[in-house]
Design a protein that fits this description.
Number of helices: 11
Structural class: alpha+beta
Helix content: 10-25%
CATH class of the largest domain: Alpha Beta
Number of strands: 25
Number of domains: 4
Strand content: 15-25%
CATH superfamily of the largest domain: Outer membrane lipoprotein wza domain like
CATH architecture of the largest domain: Roll
Radius of gyration: 43 Å
């Protein structure tokens, strides 16, 4: 007891001493019960001396404190640009930070619930779902100002929400994927495994929940980094990746050779522009080359000269076109050969030439040389060459060259002089065999070197009842020669098998007439019997 009384007196003196030197407000704060934690809502840096203005009413920090502390130690969310308050749309899951400073410094985090509402202490629920960040900030500020007019107060977006986006069509793994409100289209497509081959990267459709839609051009975004071509996503978005409509390939002297989809004017100017323009080594003194698939499904080579002032020609492109831009190396004196040359493999049964005509072998130009000499230097025509269909491609025009007459008949008058920049094109023969006439299913059939005439007729379903005898079947070779049927007859590729229809004999005609008359008499008899 002797030692207890002095200790109690000292403790009473120390507890009363702040009254002698602390202002009333600070004294009241120091006497507020503490729970031993410093959460978001209190600031230990409050002034310890000097007069402080009275704020009435005050926002009690104890009611605004949130468990879990503040976000100062949390990893920041990476963004490529600051959030635009006028464009960012609030929704369920967004976390806002309410801040006040002055007499009392505090911060508190509030989240938007699934109904799109946010609860502000001492104020109540406020609806922010569907409003922009600027509108939501203005709404909270006005609500706080009405209840606490003298409080310095502001609102900021602390953490964006997460939601589900549906990805469909041309991606590796269609489905639903999680995204943040700050994520862009490309990041969600990466989660879906990326865009499928031959799917459009320039017409990606984003359908909003409110019924609106927009298109994104990821190729433009990849080329120039313009984020307007890679928009941010919203709750309930459906991303659909369609397939290409018109795509062309550009090679040669451009800055970004490759295959690109065309969505604008679909011409050469758009293709060159999206390929980064002509390279420094491009030359306008040599024509462009264009490889295009024709109606017969074969690829043909064309040359397209530049304009008089070096401008790009107004060339409208088609799907699967291949354009080659010449460079200054092609100013050398060369000529090209293409097609069914010796050593070139035959095309597949579809008739599409497998080799790319843009990779034609080039040979040094020899002054005064003719087609015969050029063909000899190139190795000669292949066994499947269409000799009668050969031509010289010169300044965008085809000059016919009858190689059959020149090589097979040894007629020198069929020879043609070769000029600088010419391309000798020797097309392949048709690889199918055409069966026509009185057969069940006439049409072209794939060439098989082991098949005879009868086997081709069997492929066509056989002869019909109106066909003439097998001895009347004719074979027309690709050279136009007509051969009579023999069992050992060789059928070359490109040939036609013709089965003629038989004509009715007088006896057959009489039988047909008698049969028709009999049917008519029977019909009359039936009618008369019915009337009785």
């Amino acid at each position: 007891m002797t030692h207890t009384l002095p200790r109690r007196a000292l403790a009473l003196l120390l507890s009363c001493s702040p009254v002698l030197w602390l202002p009333d407000v600070v004294l009241a704060q120091s006497l507020r019960p503490q729970d031993g934690r410093q959460g978001v809502g209190t600031d230990s840096s409050a002034p310890s001396s000097g007069p402080a203005p009275q704020i009435s009413p005050q926002l009690p920090p104890s009611e605004l404190r949130m468990d879990g502390g503040d976000a100062q130690g949390a990893a920041p969310i990476p963004v490529d640009e600051p959030v635009d308050p006028e464009a960012y749309v609030c929704g369920p899951g967004d976390v806002f930070e309410l801040s006040s400073w002055g007499l009392q410094n505090w911060r508190v985090k509030v989240a938007v619930d699934l109904e799109g509402r946010v609860f502000v202490p001492r104020i109540g629920f406020l609806t922010l779902g569907g409003k922009t960040l600027a509108e939501g900030r203005r709404l909270i500020r006005e609500a706080v100002a009405r209840n606490y007019p003298k409080v310095s107060f502001d609102v900021s977006l602390a953490s964006p929400r997460s939601f589900i986006v549906h990805v469909a069509a041309g991606v590796a793994a269609p489905g639903a994927y999680r995204a943040r409100a700050t994520d862009r289209l490309s990041s969600v497509l990466a989660q879906a495994g990326g865009v499928s081959p031959f799917a459009s990267r320039r017409r990606v459709e984003i359908r909003r929940r409110d019924g609106t839609s927009l298109e994104a051009d990821l190729v433009r975004y990849a080329l120039d980094g313009d984020v307007r071509n890679n928009p941010r996503l919203l709750d309930g978005d459906v991303v659909r990746v369609p397939f290409e409509e018109i795509a062309a390939t550009i090679e040669g002297a451009v800055n970004r050779p490759g295959r690109y989809e065309l969505i604008g004017k679909k011409d050469l100017a758009e293709l060159v522009e999206i390929a980064g323009g002509l390279a420094m080594g491009a030359t306008r003194r040599v024509p462009l080359t264009l490889v295009r698939r024709g109606e017969d499904e074969q690829r043909g080579l064309q040359t397209v000269p530049f304009g008089e002032d070096g401008a790009l020609p107004p060339l409208e492109l088609r799907h699967d076109d291949v354009v080659r831009v010449p460079d200054f190396n092609e100013l050398q004196r060369f000529v090209s050969v293409s097609g069914a040359l010796m050593g070139v493999p035959p095309p597949p049964p579809t008739g599409v030439v497998p080799d790319d005509p843009t990779g034609n072998p080039r040979l040094p130009f020899v002054e005064g040389e003719t087609v015969r000499g050029l063909l000899r230097r190139a190795g000669g025509p292949g066994p499947l060459a269409d000799l009668a269909g050969a031509y010289l491609l010169r300044a965008g025009k085809a000059v016919p060259v009858d190689l059959h007459t020149l090589l097979m008949l040894q007629d020198a008058q069929a020879d043609r002089p070769v000029e600088l920049g010419d391309t000798l094109v020797v097309p392949f023969k048709r690889r199918s065999v055409l069966v026509k006439g009185a057969v069940v299913t006439p049409g072209p059939y794939a060439f098989d070197p082991t098949f005879s005439v009868e086997q081709y007729l069997a492929q066509a379903g056989g002869r019909t009842r109106f066909a003439r005898s097998l001895s009347n079947v004719r074979l027309i070779t690709p050279d136009g020669e007509t051969r009579s049927f023999r069992r050992d007859l060789v059928v070359p590729p490109g040939a036609s098998v013709v089965v003629p229809e038989r004509h009715f004999t007088p006896t057959e005609i009489v039988q047909i007439i008698l049969s028709a008359a009999s049917v008519m008499v029977s019909g009359v008899a039936v009618v008369l019997a019915a009337r009785r």
